[in-house]
Recover the amino acids of this structure.
């Protein structure tokens, strides 16, 4: 999607707006996080979510790296990012306005089981993370608008329910676990160690010892497997943990220290670079 047609060029014109974000949790979908935002200069640092990240651009364009591939996207394209997949994002040709939802695995599985009337086998996942599907992108935008405007419970639930079902039927599958290797096992040990010790000041030598790899080999193999460096991964894990604590009503200053950040300013900078929101904005919803 790096190249766009002349017909699409108008969609990528600079937006005559300021940067805005609206974030909320929708009780009709078990507290699912929802976002409507316009970004003109904000660039997301490489990060991942514990949930799916599903969305579409209303106008303008974004360029993102997912699974090591860099792609431009605009109106008519869908984001179908699986939990734990590292990605970033930056304005393309002047900025963009988009809508996102963050359904967790149990919610998506529940919807699929409701549709089929039987237990879902395996782990639901999407094979492609950015793809063009104009009709489905339009349907998603309409369903998201009903969530944002607070329309009737049946209308909003039905619209988004049908869109998520259609997304999976067209573009989803069950995860197939890849064959393991010694190097893969090593970097997964390092990843698990970072997840278990995110609040500690883990050093590269310590992490290399856990993986039984040299420091250079660890960095190279970790980036190959997860498309991110060990340090960036650790920062992202800290932010993901901080989100959980903020949702429970914790104070940003306390959470900053509990999650391994040097101070609140350091925490706020990294939080915004990965969510587009300050910790206070995220906590207040």
């Amino acid at each position: 999607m790096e190249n766009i047609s002349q017909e699409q060029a108008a969609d990528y014109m600079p937006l005559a707006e300021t940067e805005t974000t609206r974030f909320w949790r929708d009780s009709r979908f078990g507290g699912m996080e929802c976002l409507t935002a316009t970004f003109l200069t904000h660039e997301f640092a490489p990060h991942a979510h514990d949930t799916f990240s599903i969305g579409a651009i209303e106008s303008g364009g974004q360029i993102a790296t997912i699974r090591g591939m860099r792609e431009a996207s605009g109106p008519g394209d869908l984001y179908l990012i699986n939990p734990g997949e590292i990605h970033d994002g930056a304005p393309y040709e002047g900025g963009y306005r988009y809508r996102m939802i963050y359904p967790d695995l149990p919610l998506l599985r529940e919807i699929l089981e409701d549709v089929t009337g039987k237990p879902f086998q395996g782990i639901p996942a999407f094979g492609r993370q950015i793809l063009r599907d104009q009709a489905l992108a339009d349907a998603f935008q309409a369903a998201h608008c009903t969530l944002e405007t607070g329309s009737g419970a049946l209308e909003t639930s039905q619209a988004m329910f049908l869109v998520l079902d259609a997304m999976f039927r067209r573009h989803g599958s069950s995860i197939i676990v890849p064959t393991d290797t010694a190097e893969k096992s090593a970097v997964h040990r390092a990843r698990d160690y970072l997840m278990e010790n995110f609040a500690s000041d883990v050093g590269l030598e310590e992490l290399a010892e856990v993986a039984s790899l040299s420091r250079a080999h660890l960095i190279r193999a970790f980036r190959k497997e997860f498309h991110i460096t060990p340090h960036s991964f650790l920062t992202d894990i800290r932010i993901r943990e901080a989100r959980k604590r903020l949702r429970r009503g914790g104070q940003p200053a306390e959470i900053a220290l509990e999650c391994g950040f040097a101070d609140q300013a350091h925490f706020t900078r990294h939080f915004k670079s990965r969510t587009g929101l300050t910790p206070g904005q995220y906590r207040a919803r």
